[in-house]
């Protein structure tokens, strides 16, 4: 367990950095405040001081106001579909209160700084905390395959997906991870409030429903969701390294999906190693209260052999 770290109060610089990264084109949430409005208001020092005090107060009191827990989920059709008779041709867009989004961006930026400074996430966790991107991961895989061929090795990859990742994150497990990673107790207390009693209304064309409970997982559309999800995966990555010693395999995570990579002179040997490695990954995700979507799992072989293989 990491030692508990101090959580200093937010500064004016952190507020400005979070605000500058916000697009003025974003749609407003239930509070009907646009980013351009907030930028104009917070240009006044006395107003900025009030928002900083509010952000610090949320952490110190361990409380996330109910006004920031309300959202609107707008259901819009995906363009150019031949038929709109099935749910998958629609895309849900979550609209959150703008002021709450700003404070979450400040917390998210602080989390990312802590993760990198204190080495809280694995180097093979791509995206979410400025560790890299799927493009970087693609380049890494291409380099690995070429390097393997140069050594006479065959490369095999199992690509897997986590089922309903963001909604499935277990709150108690997440809180335990925050404590284990050394985040201050007042931060853990804050998230006990942040994760519960959320409500959303569903908007379809001109119709809007009443508020409904939306307490599952960490939700999508929030600045905090990616960093919290990366923290949840970090223990999986750590224990996989320990349990996979001797398998000569690599695990890469892209938030809600990942790759298991093995190399050896024979494809058949790769398959044996991948079977063991996938079993370890499956067990670790299950212990983290997450499930893999087996029907989306794919196997790839990269070989220069001109003949087929069994």
How far apart the termini lie comes to: 46 Å
Beta-strand percentage? 15-25%
Tally of distinct domains: 1
- Alpha-beta content class: alpha+beta
In total, the number of strands is: 9
Succession of helices and strands? HHHEEHHEHHHEEEHEEHE
Largest sheet: 5 strands, mixed
Helix content: 40-55%
Rg, rounded, reads 22 Å
Low-confidence stretches: none
Q: Specify the overall morphology.
A: globular
What is the mean pLDDT?
Answer: 90
Q: What count of helical segments does DSSP give? A: 10
Organism: Candolleomyces aberdarensis
InterPro entries: DNA/RNA_pol_sf, RT_dom
Domain Reverse transcriptase: 57-310
Protein name: Reverse transcriptase domain-containing protein
